[in-house]
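Summary for the funding panel

The consortium committed to producing paired sequence-structure records for every protein in the target list. Below we show the first two records in order, beginning with the earlier of the two.
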Amino acid sequence: MKKLKLQMQLSTDGFVAGPEGQLDWLTWTWDVRLQDFVRELTDSVDTILMGRKMSAGFIQHWDKAVNDPDDPSQPFAEIMVNTPKVSFSRTQSTIEGINAAITNDPITDVVNMLKDQPGKDMIVYGGAEFVSSLIDHQLIDELYLFINPTAIGEGLRIFNGRVPLELDNSTRFGCGIVVNKYLPVR
């Protein structure tokens, strides 16, 4: 059975974005070790899941980057564009983008159906409400939380209450980000 992995950036005080969705606090001066870590995590998956609110921006960003040979993220953009993406929405029935699909079906039904398919694992990047829903339904199997060296004081969270987790490992990178891998305690 496939696993659903979460890769999410957090502030040191547990927020995934500012109150209005601001991401200006994120650390993007990633060292080579962190870039390699992300590539290895990405190589372990064959499907990207995301909520409707982040889908358009995510898909447009990578579709644009893949066609720009001067963009330093162009090689990684090819991976993002070529990986099938499933966007979850209650209101939208179409989505534009390469290898992008949208579903209006119940989240638990779709995720469990995808987990039963052969292939590599799946990954979810966001958004906050969508990830919260996945956590609430106990659908995430591994959480890779990228703790940025910044506290922002207020904002959006992904945990709606107590969620028991077991720390599998923790790695500090030269840019100051610490990646904690957690497994849900069920």
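The next record, for a separate protein in the list, is shown here:
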Amino acid sequence: MRRFLQKILTKPVTRLANKFSSKPDLQRVHTALTKLYEHSLTNPGKKGLLLNAVEADRFIIFSDQHKGAKNGSDDFIKAEPNYLAALSYYYEQQFHFISLGDSEELWENTMWPVKANNKITTEAEKKFLQTKRFTKVFGNHDIFWNNDPFASLQLMSMYGEPVKVYEAVVLHISIEQKILPVFLTHGHQGDGQSDTNPFSAWFVGRIWAPLQSYLNLNPNTPAASKELKTKHNLFMYEWSKLEKNPVLITGHTHQPVFASLTHLEHLYKQLMDARERKDETLIASLNAAIHFRQQEYDYVSGNYVNMKPYYFNSGCCCYSDGDITGIEIADGMIRLIKWKKSGASSERMILEEMPLKKLLT
């Protein structure tokens, strides 16, 4: 019975949630992002943290862990081994860890079970904090960190010292005597689902979470609500390409984006080049890769060939197969990376990369 209900209810329930609770609007998104970015520059340290960096500095950006209560509706369980392996690697390699929102799933859970059931990952994150290499940003699912009067006490009990949680981070990266501005925020700003929409909170907490737990459903796959996520990513891209705006990195949609393109769109561009060069071996390899990626997300923008490389999305750390994705900024490069299981261990994969200096233009 459970499998039958899972088969017939997953799509309609997800569509219903999105229809009534999430209606991204271009102007609202752009206004919210501009206001937050300008506030971060004029009032650094309040809503947004301003960090000065050089080309050789190292940052890892993960978002959307959605750490839960280790029950049937916890989307983080399968991804936890890869997440812990990744944090161990980045700690040893001297990266600064930016957790870009929705780290804790606090729409479906209260703080107490989340805190009690995620002590191992909290300890791994704490190591970055103790070496002053940890920045925490809130998202829509853990907006608790921004608006609850007891949030600071909860953070103190988790990490053992005060933790400031921001809405945004601005990186000013010095490259060849120029400054590359990079704006990081969770990405829910201006989204009808997430901007204090009471229906969303009610639906997720009272209907979706119990149903997800019973049916063992995972809505946090790249294909879920793909039209909505793609539309929101497009709004983010349109904002980032405006003349005075910075490079933008967000999470929120769970859909990885590198240089304004999904990984699938990058593969299509590579396929076009391989066909021009008549590289049959590479064509076969790319067709196989495209077939595989289409199982994860199949949207391709009609204008993907001409899009400018101003927008990036870290994806998420709660895919149903346990993989996690993130954005690295390190040693003069920006990369879209994936961590996945390889036998008994976890493997880091570079999906896309480019020199940071290409973003200066």
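Regarding this second record: Residues 220-225, 299-307 have pLDDT under 50 and may be disordered. The domain at 2-260+308-360 is CATH 3.60.21 (Purple Acid Phosphatase; chain A, domain 2).
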